[in-house]
Amino acid sequence: MTKDLKTRRCIKCKQEKPIYNFQYTPSKFFPAHRSLFCTSCLEAITDPTNLDEVDKVCQYLDLPFNIDKWTSLYAIHKEHTLSAYFNMLADDAYDKVSWKDETERWRLAREEGTIDEEIAALSDAKTRKLKKVWSAAYTEEELLFLEDYYNQIVATQNVSTPILQHYARDLCEIELRIKKGLREGLDIKKDMDARDNIIKIAKFEASNAKNAAGFESIGELMTYYGKRGWHPKWHQEPHDSIDFLMENMQNYLQRLVKNEGNFSEQVESKRAYYNLNDRLETIENEEVEFDETANIEYEGENELMEDFDGNSRWDSD
Fold first, then answer.
1. Which of 130, 159, 240, 306 is the most exposed place for a label (fewest CB within 10 A)?
2. Phi/psi zone of residue 266: left (φ > 0), alpha (ψ -120 to 50 degrees), beta?
3. Model's pTM, two decimal places?
């Protein structure tokens, strides 16, 4: 770099370029607070579609990485998004914002599940998708309510057929009308009756709510597991997916044996039946021994007939 600080040599392309071709950085680890790579070289080695790479560049220069702004700029500038982004950071609004500050904001957004709302492009895409599923007449707030309520029904109830899915969506829209009616002080009796009818027909009741030990079949368990989309967090969860699946199967079998109708009585009945068969087979196979020396007195025919007629031979005496 020259003594008057008007130019600098890029450590990658080895070219001497004006100082403004090297991005400003607040980091104290860079001479004159300028990047060691020229912006053209940074663009060449950074994939603008790979947000991890872009984030690392911003971390390297201690510059805030705003995903929302980056996504918007990429739609226009494509491979030159990095230059456009650096120009945007020249605004005073980002003067005192560091990479750490911006990263912490996005971390909190991920934890709170508001990442889509933070990124305008993703939020718009999500809204368009929800309008196709529900209706373009709903506001963004209403669409989010409908989708969230539907996901809760799917997660807790048996919604395994297209008919049940249709009932679930109708229930969501009726619930939204009830909610709006309560706010506006309208008569919502018809909507409440319609809601109760759907709940009864589709059996969307608390007694039928699904949990880890409340399935009627292994098929329902598999469906629940797929919809739940469970992924282990190795720093938090004690089990992996196989342990989770085995635990639920064991809970189901335990509930089947303990609580399913007369299952235990059926088992005992079968056991008694097999025991009886074993005893009969033993009796049939036994050889009966008779004592040939025993003195057996045979009663005459007349005497036997008297006994049957109720006239004992002792009476005649």
1. 240
2. alpha
3. 0.38
